[in-house]
Amino acid sequence: MKPVLMCGGIGSKMWPVSREAKPKHFLPLIGDKSLFEITYGVLRKKFEAKDIYLQTNAIQAVMARKLVPEIAVENIFIEPELRNHGPATGFMAAKLMDIAPDEAFMTVQTDVLRLPENNFLKMIDEIEKIISEKGKLMTGGIKPEFAVMGVDYLIRSQEMVGKVCNMGIYKMDRWVERDSKEMVKDFVKEGRAFLHANHYAWTPRLMLEAYKRVKPDWYRALDKMMKAGFDDETVKREYGNMEKGGVEEVTRTELLDGFVVELPFDWIDFGTWESLDKYLNKDGKKTTENILELDSRGNFYRLPEGKFVASIGVSDVVVVDTGDALLICKKDQSGRVGEVVDFLKEKNPKYV
């Protein structure tokens, strides 16, 4: 198995701490280590450094190696520009064709926690075994308690092909688009619906064959890069010509003949300040140092070291101070912070 750490975005909903110069996965949000370092450290329990790969851009590659110097330069696949996950995943598979074309890989997001960590490693073992036996695309899913709109769902069949830590591995039945509300409710009630939690796993050769079938325009660009030995000029030209799009344009078709694993661990995604606040409260890590609340409750503060804050009659708000920028919002509105970043990109990009 070749785990591939995927780094790209900046986590705009965690502004003003998360910025282009230091995205959220490289920040110590929950302790002394960043989410990137935590994820890499978990993989190192099972894999040697030479077998862990990183896909990112040139700027974030430098950040990653500052945090984890043992990552070999030759193990970093650098995208010349942002073209979304479709071209990026194809590029990763093309690079792995030169290294281990028929060995399984798994894409690993670096901006989440997976607890307990050992269950994640056990899942990797089981996925590798099934891919070796069946040669099918696999990914992860989370069983929701109720239907949430605005996301795609993986619907499993009744056919179980394996287990890991008492969680099932199932043959896929269908991919349900995010606007199919009534259908999703029925599948959630039956316990057959999963929220997609990206852990795509396959072999490079099979992934590229899928690109050739489903997205031949993407494949042609990738094929030219491979035939040119990934020389800089060809990569820059061909990658830049690839149409932006999600990897789902390929995987939503291929997964109909593949498998979904119910994640045997908690998937903790720090997508907003509210989600971080919930985790810190639950884990007993929320600090009250240098904070005075009078007739206030449920607030979240992230302040420069040594700064004191007092709140009076204010509840359920987020206050994030980075010295050069200050965010104040209701916790339940923290999902809109990305709108601030969109505004700044146009009006005052020095704060992005």
Topology (elements, then pairings):
Layout: E1 2-6, H1 35-44, E2 53-57, H2 58-67, E3 76-79, H3 85-97, E4 105-109, E5 112-115, H4 117-134, E6 138-142, E7 153-164, E8 167-176, H5 181-190, E9 193-202, H6 204-214, H7 216-227, H8 232-241, H9 248-254, E10 259-262, E11 266-269, H10 273-282, E12 291-294, E13 300-302, E14 309-312, E15 317-321, E16 326-330, H11 337-347
Separation of the first and last Cα atoms: 37 Å
| Main sheet overview | 5 strands, mixed, barrel
Percentage of residues in DSSP E strands: 25-35%
Helix content: 25-40%
What is the strand arrangement across the widest sheet? 6-9-7-8-10
Rg value: 21 Å
CATH architecture of the largest domain, by name, is: Alpha-Beta Complex
Q: How do the helices and strands follow one another from N- to C-terminus?
A: EHEHEHEEHEEEHEHHHHEEHEEEEEH
Return the CATH topology of the largest domain: Spore Coat Polysaccharide Biosynthesis Protein SpsA, Chain A
* Total number of helices: 11
Number of E-state strands: 16
Q: In the residues, how many domains can be counted?
A: 2
Which descriptor suits the 3D outline?
A: globular
Mean pLDDT: 93
Unreliable stretches covering 5 or more consecutive residues: none
